[in-house]
Design goal:
This is Serine protease. It holds the Pfam family Trypsin_2. It comes from Rhizobium tropici. There is one protein chain. The chain is α+β, with helices and mostly antiparallel strands and 344 residues long. It has two domains: 9-90; 126-330, Thrombin, subunit H (Beta Barrel). Helix content is 29%, strand content 24%. The protein has helices at residues 9-22, 25-36, 40-43, 50-63, 67-77, 82-90, 99-106, 118-131, 157-160, 330-339, and strands spanning 132-137, 140-149, 152-155, 170-178, 192-203, 224-229, 262-267, 275-284, 289-291, 303-305, 311-318, 325-329. It has a six-stranded antiparallel beta barrel with strand order 1-2-3-6-5-4. A six-stranded antiparallel barrel has the order 7-8-9-12-11-10. Helix 4 crosses helix 5 (67-77).
Length: 344
């Protein structure tokens, strides 16, 4: 028997308070119409007070065992509200590690304290999730990418290599699918597909990357591609009347990873809906890092973050004969793209 999400009264109260603080009635009217095709007035009469209408709205979806639908919609519209991310976790939309685990991962190896705030972490995570996309080529699921500019996505070169036209820049049948998520009950979020049109900067993988040993040491092989989308989406809302999607900026002075440092990865393994996994750095040389996070085919191009959710590496390889996973330091990608005339 399928298990349905049913919120506790405490969670119901939190959802009620958060919606009431984050939306005005007209915005809820638009959100319900666009996302679900229903009128707010069909759920509760417009003659009632605003507070009462929000109360009945939450009650309506909870009674229908569809509370995760409502939570997904309000979180997409207001990703900056950490309470919506907290409730999304409770509804199975995302699976965050325990905050104590994150603190342990973040703790500097030399000792010290961690100042990460759970609410701030949730806000950052919402932006990172909204930046993630599944790369689809010729209707086949191929990899993962991350929105790093208004209309710019970063992924692996090998993910889109076969779709590059003869001119070396144009892309054929490459689509970036954003918001590919699902709840624990397999309820899917609406996906936004955007065509990718051309390659702005790239670097191929090395022959040495095809085997565990010896590891590549050549700095000219970074297996990345910066690709342009057909339209700007970072400044556009995920749902009408919502906040802008946002993007994940690459840091000019990207933090350097060291062995045993914790990390997080957002990915679309095997073309599945978005997944988050934890791991740590197990080895590194100047141009490659190896890590213990779980990945699959389709994870290529997935962003790797430190525990502050700063992007620090780009996953690009896993090996069937070994537990080794490999990534490229973001700092090298930024420098290489700049040398080719592209500032990230």
């Amino acid at each position: 028997m399928e298990e349905w999400v049913r919120f506790s009264q405490t969670q119901i109260n939190l959802l009620y308070d958060s919606i009431r603080a984050a939306f005005v009635p007209d915005e809820l009217e638009i959100l319900l119409s666009v996302r679900f095709g229903v009128r707010y007035g069909a759920i509760v009469a417009s003659s009632k007070t605003d507070d009462y209408r929000v109360f009945k709205l939450v009650e309506h979806y909870n009674a229908k065992y569809e509370i995760e639908h409502l939570v997904a919609a309000v979180r997409d519209a207001r990703p900056s509200v950490p309470e919506f991310t907290e409730l999304a976790e409770a509804a199975g939309l995302i699976q965050l590690p325990a905050f104590s685990v994150l603190q342990a991962l973040a703790r500097p190896l030399q000792g010290g304290t961690v100042g990460q705030d759970p609410g701030d972490f949730r806000r950052k995570l919402a932006v990172r999730e909204n930046s993630l996309c599944r790369i689809v080529i010729d209707n086949r699921r191929f990899g993962t990418g991350m929105l790093i500019g208004e209309d710019i996505v970063l992924t692996n070169h090998h993910v889109i290599e076969k779709a590059i036209a003869a001119d070396g820049e144009s892309l054929n049948n490459v689509v970036c699918e954003f918001d590919h998520r699902e709840t624990a009950q397999r309820v899917m979020s609406p996906v936004m597909p955007v065509q990718a049109t051309r390659v702005l900067a790239s670097s191929p993988f090395a022959e040495a990357d095809q085997a565990v040993e010896p590891a590549n040491t050549a700095p000219e092989f970074l297996d990345y591609a910066v690709i342009r989308l057909a339209k700007r989406i970072a400044d556009q809302p995920i749902v009408e009347s919502g906040e802008p999607r946002g993007m994940t900026r690459l840091l000019e002075n990207s933090p350097e990873l060291i062995v045993d440092q914790g990390l997080l990865i957002l990915q679309h393994p095997n073309a599945m809906p978005m997944r988050l996994d934890l791991g740590s750095v197990t080895w590194r040389n100047p141009v490659r890092i190896r890590h213990s996070a779980h990945t699959l085919h389709g994870s290529s191009g997935a962003p790797i973050f430190d525990a502050d959710l700063s992007p620090v590496a780009l996953h690009h390889a896993g090996y069937e004969t070994s537990a080794v996973n490999q990534a490229i330091p973001i700092s090298l990608i930024i420098a290489d793209a700049r040398a080719k005339g592209i500032s990230l």
